[in-house]
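User: Second chain of the day. Same drill as before.
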Amino acid sequence: RIYVTGVSASGKSHLASRISHALRLPYVELDALYWKTNWIGTSNLEMSDNLRPELSKDKWVIDGRQDLSHDGLIVPHAQIVIWVDLPLHLITYQLLKRTLERASKRRSLWAGNVENPWLAIINWIRFTFFPYYRLRQKYIAQYRDSPDLKLALVRLRNRKEIRAFVSRL
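Assistant: Same format as last time:
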């Protein structure tokens, strides 16, 4: 059971998908469980209800943002936590690239939602850019001191480390 986490636009979904494919494990994208039509999010209780059946399975790869409240529900079930901890300048580049691709293709995301590029950038600034360093320190401490982390924490800090990790799968 592998939990891939990181801030928005860090590349966690792409990495989780690659791990899932390479190891032939079921892949659970938290955004797919969270978002309803018209970008309405589920309540914490509903999200927990959606997540519990997935967590009870023997094998999975789950990805999700670190700052969401259900992080504490996932970590105790995970055997490996992979923290995609890229530098802010790289995350910023990835967000802009992803947002432009989604906007140009009007790609349908979760529950048929199509991302508004301006809103995506504003939300990213609000929930990732401004709190980036504070959240990073919080998660360094959380993962270092977590009694719930039973087996392994893999912290990937750059693309080279990600490529090396994927090549060992």
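The chain has a mean pLDDT of 85.

User: Great, on to the next one.
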